[in-house]
Model the fold of this input.
Amino acid sequence: MDRFVEVSLSFPVIIFSFVLCVAIIYWVVAIFGVAEVESYNVDADGVFDGLGGLLMRAGLDGVPLTIAFTLVSLFAWLGIYLLDIYFLEHIPSGIVSLIAGLSASAVAAVVGTFIAGLLLKPLRPLFKKIAAPTAKSIIGHIATVRSGSVTGEEGVVILEDGGAGMILNVRTMNGATFLRGDRVALLEYQAERNCYIVIGEEDFNR
Done:
């Protein structure tokens, strides 16, 4: 047991130990009803294009972020733990050990991501059926702008659904612009762009 704790708290394993602890604490809190299971799905849109692209290539698109994050954390931690025991601990401390630790961490994270994707890929249809409402069912609902702004080219809103809420890609029409915190109405869903067309709440209620 002492050996397990020692390795778990050593560099670079401690990085993934911390991330895994965050995931575990989240689920403990969720079990007691203080937090809810995140319904936002992995997406490659916006500032996280690189990370989202990796997750999608790993087969994690359409999977709730909290579930994907937990499994990736678990397998990445297991990978770096084994690498540390069988490889990293035999490298003398110093700059070489630091570089090897960081390189092994990157490898463990990528491998953990693809292992999680392999396990969750067959379950994606189930997640979509459970978590995703039809586009038509939320047309006319009011959402709040979450991104810095919403324009005809980009934008994200959050739609309160009585649970964790839904993050939706949206666009405006006729050159309109909305800022963070503005309330907008979902007017139309465009499947080819995977986004909703929105207008201001006041205009919608006229």
The radius of gyration is 21 Å. The chain has a mean pLDDT of 81. The CA atoms of residues 1 and 7 lie 10 Å apart.
